[in-house]
Design brief:
Blueprint (H helix, E strand, L loop, with lengths): L11 H16 L9 H4 L57 H4 L10 E8 L2 E11 L17 E3 L10 H7 L10 H4 E7 L5 E6 L4 H15 L4 H15 L27 E5 L90 E3 L3 H5 L4 E4 L7 E3 L5 E3 L1 H8 L20 H13 L9 H15 L1 H8 L28 E7 L5 H9 L6 E4 L6 H13 L8 E8 L2 E8 L2 H10 L3 H13 L4 H8 L7 H7 L17 H4 L8 H4 L19 H19 L12 E8 L3 H14 L1 H6 L15 E3 L4 H14 L3 E8 L19 H6 L2 H4 L4 E7 L17 E3 L4 E2 L2 E2 L5 E4 L1 H9 L7 E3 L1 H13 L5 H21 L14 H12 L11 E5 L3 H17 L7 E5 L9 H11 L19 E5 L13 E5 L10 H8 L4 E4 L17 H8 L3 H10 L7 E3 L7 E3 L2 H4 L1 H8 L95 H5 L5 E4 L1 H8 L18 E3 L13 H11 E3 L21 E5 L6 H19 L1 E5 L25 H6 L16 E2 L15 H7 L2 E5 ...
Parallel strand pairs: 7-9, 8-10, 12-13, 15-16, 15-17, 17-18, 18-34, 19-34, 23-31, 24-26, 24-27, 25-26, 27-31, 36-54, 42-43, 42-45, 43-44, 48-51, 53-54, 53-55, 55-56
Antiparallel strand pairs: 1-2, 1-4, 2-3, 4-5, 6-11, 8-14, 13-14, 20-21, 22-28, 29-30, 32-33, 35-37, 38-39, 39-44, 40-41, 45-50, 46-47, 46-51, 48-50, 49-51, 52-57, 56-58, 57-58
Helix pairs in contact: 10-11, 10-13, 17-29, 21-41, 22-41, 28-29, 29-30, 29-31
Amino acid sequence: MGNSNAGQLQTTRFEEVLHNSIEASLRSNIVIPRPVFSQLYLETERPLTNDGRTENDDEDDEDGSESNSPTIPYQMKPTPEGCCTTDGFCQEGRDLRLSSLSADSLDVPPGFVLVGVKSSSLPETLLVCAVDHRFLPDEQGHNALLGFSGNCMGCGEKGFRYFTEFSQHINLKLSTQPKKQKHLKYHLYRNNQGVLVKGAPICWRGHDGQMRRTSSTLKESHVTSEEQTQNLAAHVQGVCTVESRVDPAAPHVQTKLPQSLTNGNHTAPAVTQPPLHQSGPGRATVPGIHVNAGPPKKRHKGWSPETAANSQSESTLKMPPGSSSSGVIPSGGINGTRSDCAALPKPSQSLTTPPPPLGLSVTVPDQLLHTCRLQPVIFKGHGPLPPLTGNVSEVLVSTLLQSCYLSSQALPRVYQHYGPSPIQPLSTEMQILLTVYYLVQLGPEQVPLIEDLERIFMRSWRESHLSEIRQYQQPQAATPGRHYIIETSSSLPGLPQNLYLPNLSQQPLTPSQLPWLAQLAASSCGEAVVVLGEQVRSLAQGLQQTLDQLMEGQLQNTKYVVIIVVLGQETQSCVVVTGKRQCRALAESMLSPSESLREVNQQLTTGGAQELIHHCNSLGQDGHMDSILDSATVDGGETSPQLTGQEPSEDRGLKSTSNSPKERAPSPKDTCSEYSVEWCEVRPIQLAVARKLLSHVCAIADSSTQNLDLGSFDRVSFLILVPPSEVTFQQTLLHLRSSGVLQDFGGLDQKCRSPQKAEHYVVKVDQAAQVRIDSFIQEAQSNTYTLYILVHDHAHWDIRSASYSSSDPGLGLVDQLLNSRQVTDAQNILILHVTSFPFALQTQHTRISPYNEIHWPSAFSNDVDLYHEKTRYFGVSELLESTRSGSSLPLMRHDSSFESMTSALEERFPKLHSAVIRTTVLIQHYCVALMAASCRIGSCHNLHKHTSVETLEIVQSLITAPQQCPAGHGHMVLLRIPSLALAAWAHRKLSRVRRQLGLEESFEIILGNPNKALSIGQSFIKQIKMWLQIQDSDWVPHTYLELEALPCILILSGAEPLGESLPRSLKYCDLRVISCSYLQRTTLEQELGLAAYLVRHESRLPHNPGPGSDLLESDAEKLSSTDNEEEEGQENDDSPLSSQQLQVCPEGGAVETISVQNITSPKVQRGHAELVQTPPILYTQPPAQNQTHPQVPSHSQTQPVSKLQSQSQTQTQPTPQVSSQTFIPSSAQNTNSQPETGQSHRQPSKSASSGSLSPRSCSPHPNCSWVRGVSRPPSVLLPRALYDIITASDSSGLPQCTSFLPHMSVAWASSFRPLLTKMMTCTEQSLYYRQWSVPRSFHMDSNNLTGGRSDNFHPRRLLLSGPPQVGKTGAYLHFLGILSRMLIRLMEVDIYDEEDINWSEQSEAVQYQLSNAPWPSPDIMRTMPYDYTVHDPKYDDISAVYCPGYRPDSEGSAVRQEDVYLRRRTTRIKLSKYAAHNTYHHCEQCHQYLGFNPRYQMYSESSLHPFTFTHLLLGEEIQLYFIIPKSKEHYFSFSQSGGQLEGMRLPLSSDWSPDCIKSPIFTPTTGRHEHGLFNLYHAMDGASHLHILVVKEYEMAVYKKYWPNHVMLVLPTVFNAAGIGAAHFLIKELSYHNLELERSRRLEGGGPVGEVWPFIILTDDSCVMFNAVDLDTHNGPSEHAVSLKQVLQHLEACPDLVQFGLCGIRKWSSSGAKGQRAENKQWVPFSRGHLHDFLLLNVDRSQNIQYDQNRFTCHDVDFSLRLHSAGLLVCRFNNFSVMKKQIAIGGYRTFIIKTKVTDVPTSVGPSQYVCAPDSKHLFLASPAQLLLEKYLQHTSHKLFPFSCRNYIRPVLSVDCYLNLGPEVTVCFVSSRPHSVNISTTGMLFSGLLLCFTDSFVTANFLKKFTFLKGATLCVISADRSSLRQTVSRLELEEEWRFRLSDEFQTANAKEDRPLFFLTGKHI
């Protein structure tokens, strides 16, 4: 080009051979690529001068360009003010001249070399700089990376990444563009003297010289073209060989790149010839090309591979939906802009667009649209587009192609991590050449898709850098699935299979070669693609020439004109679309959906469509449609004439259509037994999804983030947001009323109790929603204990940002409501997004965490029913499969007749929108089909040729179906017309034709306007009410689901479906009018989702229908004249028929043989299993949505299972018959029956409603169309263009549309993204979109960035996604129900609810104190008898304590303790606000108390403190450890010197504070670190208190982890195996020791004089709530919840408390205070007796009575008896009660008896717990005391036989109480002097128990008691020696007889210190 001779072939013969070779290569089917361009096209050689350089190759040549074009003037940036501008100095004023720096020591970083820079202003010297050696060529001139990296040797500044910036820094002062090739001239080195001198010149010319010499040699040899091919092929093969296809499974091959490919120029292409693989009609895929792309020629300052794509501000460039700016990959068809757009920032020099020269403008001719009947579209490419003048309104300009070019040159950051990279984007020339190749191989009716072109670019780029990409992917192998790296396979899925791309050899593709190569490539397609290259000198000239040729009619057969202009080294291009179909499609795609609808409305209102309507009404020679209708003789009051023998046979089967329901007047006998309604229950898969939702909510609550505290909520409320569709609103209300959720909430919320209040919980997102949302927010703020669930249903509908101005005021409301600070910051609001198309919510800026996504599971795996579903989901994937199954009539198809008619009219009416034309034609087809099917029109009118076979079949089936059922059941036909105006016109037109034909009662025509309620004729309402047995006279249907079995045409309008569910009687889904312009995945799939269906799992129809199948004579005509003639051959070869097929038998039409392979063929099912995890178009078999019918009773009874019998017809033309098949019956339920499970009745629905309507099994009327239809999916009719796109699949088997832009509100983050794969699960797809898609500026998530972080997830936001109509509504409604029940369950606990035991009604009741006495009087209490009887129900299995006044009602039974523990009665009680909690409760108020909040963590840091004291009984020092948090250190005193713990601080008895508890609280615990109720914050009502957990040493760490802010007392190691007695013993002794220390400290410190508080609290770890008795009620005493603070403060306020030794409170039971046994029924406020679980102990008065540290059981009974016998007062405050929670884990009552041999628990009987001394016995590893207690508990009825069940003959136990089992009674006496004992005068004892007797027990003491003859003696001692000493000291042998065999020991080894006991008999 220009003055260059490059690219010129030398001979005509050579050109002819080349052309023929290229044409043959393009048409060849050979797999092996044949490089054509690389073999035949050679660069010309320029004459060399004497020094070996070309004539033009002077030193001032910047980059070796072969063009003589004038250079572009360059203006340097102004030098910053104050900087040095002297030549030879840098801007910092430092000298750079070689002469000045030659002797200096210079700091050169590793990898850098010193280079001499040539300056034009200082020709005599060089400037010194340091340059990274990787950016310099080697000796041969090769291997130099493009770009620059250098340092200044003057000032030392480093990191110059651009030579332009560096040249300005060193003051080169250039007038041309700075080039490193021009100014970096010499290497510098130091000579022997160390002086820096000039070295060898830098070789920038090696590459050019070598190629020219090769070219010259080949030129001068005069060989033939074949020889040239062989020679060059051998040369290329010797350098590098790259396969055109790489097996993905093959190992990575490291390909050595030739040294001649270093500077980034792409090589000349060669055409590859893969085989022809037709994957779909007219669509094809692309084999690979190989591009050895280098780095960009120049990176502008501020450009980075990742950010360049997003640098274009959308505010400066208006991009309609689907289009994109730079970096926003164009998707959604071919959208663009209607006007010229602002210049985009470009990552390479070739895309820099300076303003065009003045005077170069293009004049658009007048009358262009009228003359050419098209509106050409100009795609901006490279370079500036000249301004358009004249008739510019008839030309469209789009930047879509330019955006694609830009995004394909923005390398991702992954290839920038390791410094300068050899991986570079495609060059400008290669992009243009690939564009030409793509356009060449498009079909004549195809519209170019930017997605296809983008994938071609990416494939070419990948294949040219296979080895480099693999190198970068190698470290990423272990990267988790979220980060998808560019795939290395050379086969690029999703592209046309017959699209061949040039294979790149090793020769660079220069700008001068591009025009000729492009023309050569375009020559193979005739005139379809015209390339203007060498004949034009500017884009303006090319555009002007193209427009002139259009006006002259010279481009009639041309679809595209590609204009290429080469200006020096800059290449400019643009593409002009001149094909009529392509121009129309592109023009409409450049409108947004709202703009498109406005244009349609304008054309209708201005009368622009009248000519079209008039034209369509004309039937040519058959007359005018209106005239024919007017001439039809229809008498509205009479039935139509009956059929006669002279009528044409083709019309006989249709004459009966006039028998309308009104005319037939159905009687009660005219019912269809097949029709039944079953009330929907929650299907298993819906229940599974609801539980998954619940588990995610629980996971949020259980996380450490504290974002949701379920324990703080006592109820649930919700609000459901739905799109502004009245039908969707009513449909949600229908689900809500029938789901049972309102009944579940009714007990808590008064608003729920009335079904009419359901509207309170569902809101349409329109302008009126703001008030309801504000009320919802205020309600949530005022009710902090209520969890509010905000359900955003159909969540993909409105995702526009509220801050983005929009012409539609309804958009942006969701963002304004859901993302407001009031909602997002509310801790009690949880947001649930529900959608079938979640892609728009899965972006880089999404607010939803990937861990909070719930994907609908597959109901089937390998044909195995995972959830026992009765239905199988038939969705988009199955529809696509039916097109590939090889069946003659797939479910999804197109209408060729309709398409041909619309194409002709689109050319005739170029100004009308295609939606107007297609709708008009479609309605005309329906009108004509109604006229033909009604048989009202005479046979002289040949109406069949004016409609299509598809439409005629639909209408015939619609009219005849009700005639085949006695009840008039039929099916629904859906017409999808997005425009409201067109839908209203279609409704009027069809209604008028129906009225004129007298078919008003045959079927209904319904206009589905989302803004209006459903309107149905009264006659059809009566029909529906009769079918559903509804008695309400005012009932009307509000949803489409309630139109089940109604024959009707539903015209569904609206820009997009808004979640409306359709009934199961839907048979035809006519989508022939939907737009083909907006190709986003969401848009396509939600339209196809209207046909989603549930197929009965049990109904598997036979493969061969047999003679009774529904075949009509029109089958042959239909199969030969409709849709898929051109594809059937290929599809049959690719997809064999499955073993079973679903026969879809349309009434009056042909049989539809659908190969439902995923349902019937296990082989194909396994293939589909790969798709089930990919949403939603990749869903295969999830079941249907819980969508319902009105809640009416159904009294039909279940029929027995039988086969449908065929009926013979008497007419000449056979009517449809049903093949033999079995239907599974489903009985209906009555609405009055409420299930016990709490599940309310569901209502029937379509496929979305879990198959609620089912056919009856036995039928005398097998011809009911509804019966046959409910188990068959509907048929779908699509536009041909859309059908081609949807059915095209990529190499992995996924539909091509899955790779489209997911939503118009998002954009691709980079072109360098991988494709979705077939094996991706739903989670992996989510991660894919999260990585590779970004929201546009008008997306509501676009501003979701905080501090530069893109993962700003909202913690309480969930996303539920599933395919359309699968049951998501039912699932989330059930989730709301189980969440509410779970919260109620969380707020409830199992409380022990047992009445006191061992009460005797005969016992005398005396009223000692007044019932309302607040505190006990010590004097009165001493007069009260002590109740020795144990009344606590937990001790139902122990020995009764003898009490003189007590007589048991009945003899006790043998009850074991383990049995009692398991069978104890409990009741569920809701937690009060004063409850104690375990570790699972964390509300805001508890954060500081628990110490988990980071703000309070510093206060919960603990330290370990030892504490030692001496105890006389133990005979040694006891060392304990305290773990004390810093927040609790003020309760303790420490030494001033070493900070050692000295003790606990105790208050004085006179101290009192309303917010303080004086008594320290001790809680012994084991094994309950999670479940123990140690959180007393709410129980104490915020009062200050000291709570100490007493733990064993081995559990110290785990308790500290769960309770970091609690004080812990760690028991000594020797007590690790001890029981509860040891814990209480140490607590009591420690407390008394501390009391003495505190008294001493106060005396020594001179503190206040007074009595130190001597009380402590001993509480069990299961005390959950406390109650107080209210005596003021009329019905007797009642109880109410109080705080522990109130209880303790009341006890501590007792005036004479210090006189009591032990106080406690009553155990709660449901009988309440009324359970007190008093003869006079008077309330007894205080009593004396045993105390348990919650004790207030006076450690001062009880200092001489210790707990038995060895005891495991009944230690509290033993302690109470000894305390009472010592004369101390024991008082129980009956005005308070404690509730104990049942905790089945841990505790001191859990004992495991195991053997010494193994640690595994072994079944050892109680008889083996003891053995004879010195015998060989199985030793046990349990403590000796435990074995002894257990042995006595289980065997004492044999040891003391006289006492068994004999209360008046108890066993005498001295100083100790041991449990001898429930059959034995124990009489306790104390041997201490002055002790209080019962009177034993006259009593005969059946036994004597002496356990560890001390010196107080003497022989004289024992002689006071009388024993029965033969009574049993049991003496227990620590060893055999002390045992004998005891017998001797007490003179027992005088009255008791002993034998050697009566001596026993516990089954312990000697080192475990067994216990010994001796038995004897009384003489």
